[in-house]
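Extended Data, panel c. Modelled sequence:
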Amino acid sequence: MTVLTEQLWAMEPKRLSALFRDMQAKGFPDAAARAAMLAATSSRDDPLYERSGPLAVIPLAGPLAKEGSWWWGITSTRDVGQALLQAATDPSVRGILLDIDSPGGTVDGIEELAGIVQMVAAQKPVYAYAADLMCSAAYWIGSQAQEIGTQATAMVGSIGVIMTHQDWSAWDAKMGVDITYLTAGKYKAMGNADEPLSDEARAYLQEGLDEVYGLFLDAVAQGRGVDRETALAMADGKVFLGRQALELGLVDRLESRADFINRCITEVHMDLAKLKAEHPGVAAELRAEVEQEMSAQQATALQAAVNGERDRCVGVVSALVGEEQGSKIAGLLATGVTPEQAKAMAGFMPKADNQGSSHAMLDAIAGVTQGPMNPAADATAAAPDFDALVEAEVKGGLSRGKAVAKVIKEHPEAHAAWLSKRSKEGK
């Protein structure tokens, strides 16, 4: 208990005082209780979250600490982090909801958990809902979600850092106890509980508080997508009701928990077929945008392939007939001459032996222009399968519409090959 009470806390002050009183009343767990706690946390085979359709619901309730303790009703941030990582690797989970009802907790472990939320959010949508309370460290974590919902009566905020200093010097004197700290280093025992808090010790402890507060501000600014000045306006330590929190930008939506969960499920479950059925206008716009982008990227990829094949063929011919003749061939190809035109030109050229090189040149022109003008066949063979790439993105958690758009952008050669194949098949 002493270790927890002397830590830095990011927690709503009144509830922190209540927690300390509860810890004082309960005392330390006995051997049987400690064994029960160990048994309760030893197995990690079962899912560490509940399911609501494609949504993994992870509770974040009560006071928070890195190791946690159900003896004092404290949630382990490491357990929450493990649940997030487990949900991120579950292919049946399309999105994650942090179901928060917490006044905050110790600073230790919170930055680590916020980092896990950021990492998981890069893989799957992460939402946060403040059922009744999302304060201090709980807000630090929740602010990293892509969207935060709450209800009108919920309390949100208390962005700040707090610690307590207990001065036991009068008690020590009353009990006749004289405690001496032997240290190496000026600050090693500064701020201890057996001496009054000096101005220098206060400044030293305040420096640590300010440093952690800065980290808190940076996390809120990054998570909410605002600058540090705006985050600072949110982070004055006040607690706000839901509507005030919405006006200040601390949350994104004011709605019931059930409505918020249903909307999250709809967002992560929406696929292209459902989009077409429910929102045909949006689907048509998406299709038009995709086709336009595909057409432009296909034309770019096709032209690049044509230019590359032409340069390759001219290089081969130049090696055979010489650089001078090769330059002439390159110039002739640049005019857009076709194999048929080259053959017609050959009919007007003398047949004398000294013209053999000219005929060879024209034959070379005809040869290199037969195949390279249609490089799509080679590109098709070399390009990865477009449909397979799309399916892989869908399995990774994207809707089909978003998966198609992503593959279009990242694999233009596959798009070109796919369109060429569909064109030949008459689709």
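The first strand starts at residue 9 and ends at 11. This feature is highlighted in the accompanying rendering.
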